[in-house]
Amino acid sequence: FNCATLGASTSHGSLTNVFTNGEDGWMNNGSLSDGDRCVFQAGFDYQNATTHLDTIGYVGIENTGNASDFGNLSQARRGTTSSNDSTRGLFVGGEPSATSGSNRIDYVTIQTTGNATDFGDYTYNVRSPASTSDATITIVSGGRWAGSSATMYNTYCGYITIQTPGNASSFGNLQNARRGHMMSSDGTYAVTWGGRESGTPGYAD
User: Fold this and answer.
1) In this structure, what DSSP letter does residue 4 have?
2) What is the reported pTM?
3) Which residues contact residue 97 at a Cβ distance below 8 angstroms, ignoring those fewer than 6 apart?
4) DSSP string, 70-123
5) Dihedral-angle region of residue 87 (phi above 0 means left; psi in -120 to 50 means alpha; beta otherwise)
6) Mind listing the pLDDT tens digit for each residue in 74-109?
């Protein structure tokens, strides 16, 4: 898309160079950009429903072309959330299997390809949270508890200082527990919307 011009999308390329073994990748809340390069985490292989992926790929935003391999996460998982500042990208939480979650925080240097490095731990094992950044801290919100309370959605929000490796800290709470929602920031305020809640109909507005 050209963000300044309304209209239909145009093909940029494909994921062919990243998925070289026939995987059918599912990107789930795992992409980030420094304005020049988009880095994404491909978390699941639908052709083999038991296979979670650790693949990280990237594309240059201004130049069309296929994606290229960036490296690997420290743990194969899907349903991560991601955020970044101008140089560093974070991948938080996720689902390493159908019945478990992860508290891992990985980081990459956006302009330097290579495997992700362990950053620290989130405050609990979380699946499908949302996140946003003011270019100094990342706020992570909601998600789904994983483990003994795997069916519960969460109101919890944590924060991470992007340039300081370490564990996440508590920030506050959402008004409603949810997962699979969206989150965005203008650098001062952060907003979140949508997602899935407990109960019927089970979708938040």
Assistant:
1) T
2) 0.90
3) 52
4) EEE-SS--BS-EEEE-SSEEEEE--BSBTTB-EEEEEEEETTS-S--EEEEEEE
5) alpha
6) 999 888 999 999 999 999 999 888 778 899 999 999
